[in-house]
Design brief:
Layout lengths: L1 E2 L2 E3 L2 E3 L6 E5 L6 E6 L3 H17 L7 H17 L1 H12 L3 H24 L5 E8 L3 E9 L2 E5 L5 H14 L3 E5 L6 H13 L6 E3 L4 H10 L5 E5 L2 H11 L5 E5 L5 E4 L5 H13 L11 E5 L3 H13 L19 H17 L2 E4 L18 E4 L6 H4 L6 E7 L2 H9 L3 E2 L1 E5 L3 H8 L6 E4 L14 E2 L2 E2 L4 H6 L2 E9 L23
Parallel strand pairs: 1-5, 8-9, 8-11, 9-10, 11-12, 13-14, 13-19, 14-17, 16-17, 19-20
Antiparallel strand pairs: 2-3, 4-5, 6-7, 7-23, 12-22, 15-16, 18-21
Helix pairs in contact: 1-7, 2-4, 2-6, 3-4, 4-5, 7-8, 9-10
Length: 507
């Protein structure tokens, strides 16, 4: 079992009080790593390091090309170590090796993308249209790094979420304090080794581990933190936004979801069934943009459900390191208990568990945090299982009589992160998509994201965007410059409103 250290000001350090905790493999309950438990003092040290690095260090003053070189070297290391990192994340999070292998590949590609974005960010002047007059004025805008960015990432995609946060912040010249989820800290601490190996200047990247309540409180209220970037539950997102308001920090939040997945009556049945399983049960349903509200035309409901249930019953549940495994454990015993509680709530509310409906047991499963893939029918939109983000392998099915009903049900939610429409008529699907209040909408697909396209939510699913130019700009301040080139007092008649012009001022 490896003992990890935090990374502060270019140095690997223990928690100042020496406290540690064990990171647990959710497959078998065994400890896989010893993790430092940061105190308030540790958090303050990390913020001070990031502040000094931004105010006095070389990183924000480098050209985009120079920063790109550092980030690109880190991306190359990630590419070389994909298999190693996929295994580590699988052990730490319970994600299947097929899922974590894809994550490792995507993380290296995404960091390489941010390296290229850094080259484009050189604080170049952007002339203001209609405000440029030769010999009179030169008026323009520039984007500058924001400062110290505190970044808080979730446990469901610990590797990729770290890259999603670190990449754009570093590309634009900011310094960072990154805090991984307590349940899945290993990959963030492994990334610290990579940034140290590349030789990032001290204080540019700081990675601390420990309890979210303690660390989050310091980061969100600290006067030397300029921005908070958070991915996690809507409940915690609200708390972060409220606490950050005291110092008017810039905030980006990628919060919860309850994706509406609308199957039209002309959809390809085989693709729609398999696609809906993919939409809801990928990574044990622990994905914020999952399609966890399945909306079926009442006329085709029964056939669809019968076929889906049979496929769910056939899913391979087991060791996440086995490539044959399709459904691994949820991230922790605590999360398993939360999901099982929601399943009981669904039954009490009157929904019917068409398949699943409890803990998955037998053999090695008895040691782990396994939940059966559960399909609820008879769900209505006022039930908690239709309104709350469960974050487990649980899918609720709602019937609709018309497309209008489906759209209304889809939008009747505090969330607006994702939605999907399945149809053989693409134009019809696009018309429906235009009426759905969600930040990302798939047509005949799900879970496909690109670092080139913005990602984020409507309503209480978040604030701001990640990826694309929009995601890059979330880590910048926009500055407007007015440059006078008139050179003569007579070209400034507005001064006359408060200053009498002298004869010597006439030329």
């Amino acid at each position: 079992m490896e003992t990890y250290k935090m990374y502060v000001d270019g140095t690997f350090v223990d928690a100042e009080n020496g406290d540690c905790y064990n990171s647990i493999n959710p497959f078998n309950g065994e400890a896989i790593a010893k993790i430092p438990l940061a105190s308030v003092g540790d958090v303050n040290k990390a913020v001070v390091a990031a502040r000094n690095a931004f105010d006095h260090g070389p990183w924000p003053r480098m050209s985009g090309e120079e920063r790109s070189e550092f980030i690109g070297k880190a991306a190359a290391i990630l590419k070389d170590r994909m298999k190693e990192f996929a295994r580590l994340e699988s052990l730490d999070s319970g994600g299947t090796i097929n899922k974590t292998g894809a994550d490792a590949f995507l993380a290296s590609r995404q960091l390489a993308f941010f390296s290229e974005q850094a080259k484009r960010f050189n604080e170049e002047a952007e002339p203001i249209d209609g405000m440029m007059r030769e010999g009179r004025s030169f008026n323009y805008t520039i984007r500058e790094p924001m400062g110290v960015c505190a970044q808080i990432i979730p446990w469901n995609f610990p590797y990729m979420m770290a890259i999603w946060k670190l990449g754009p912040a570093l590309a634009t010249g900011n310094t960072v304090v990154l805090k991984p989820a307590s349940d899945t800290p290993v990959m963030a601490l492994e990334l610290a080794k990579v940034f140290d190996e590349v030789g990032f200047p001290p204080g540019v990247v700081n990675i601390i581990s420990g309890p979210g309540g303690v660390i989050g409180e310091v980061l969100t209220t600290h006067p030397d933190v300029d921005k908070i970037a958070f991915t996690g539950s809507t409940e915690v997102g609200r708390e972060i936004m409220a606490k950050a308001a005291g110092t008017l920090k810039k905030v980006t939040l990628e919060c919860g979801g309850k994706g509406a997945n609308i199957i039209l009556d002309d959809a390809d049945l085989d693709i729609a069934i398999d696609g809906s399983i993919w939409a809801s049960f990928y990574h044990q349903g622990q994905v914020c943009e999952s399609g966890t509200r399945l909306m079926l035309d009442a006329r085709g409901h029964d056939d669809f459900i019968e076929q889906m249930a049979e496929k769910l019953k056939a899913m391979q549940i087991g060791d996440p390191l086995d490539p044959a495994t399709q459904l691994g454990p949820v991230v922790s015993q605590r999360q398993m208990e939360s999901v099982l509680n929601y399943i009981e709530i669904g039954k009490q509310e009157g929904a019917m568990a068409r398949c699943g409906g409890g803990r998955a047991t037998g053999g090695d499963l008895d040691k782990g945090a396994f939940v059966q893939p559960t399909l609820f029918t008879g769900v209505t939109n006022d039930m908690r299982i239709a309104r709350d983000e469960i974050f487990g392998p649980v899918l609720g099915v709602l019937k609709y009589d018309s497309v209008e009903d489906a759209v209304d049900m889809a939008n009747d939610s505090i969330f607006g992160l994702s939605a999907g429409v399945w149809s053989s008529d693409i134009e019809k699907a696009k018309r429906i998509a235009s009426r759905l209040r969600s930040g990302t909408i798939w047509i005949n697909e799900w879970h496909i994201l690109s670092e080139k396209a913005p990602f984020g939510g409507y309503k209480q699913s978040g604030v701001g965007r990640e990826f694309g130019d929009e995601g890059l700009h979330e880590y910048t301040e926009l500055k407007t410059l007015y440059v006078d080139d008139a050179k003569t007092r007579k070209n400034k008649p507005w001064y006359d409103m408060v200053v009498a012009r002298q004869k010597t001022d006439a030329v």
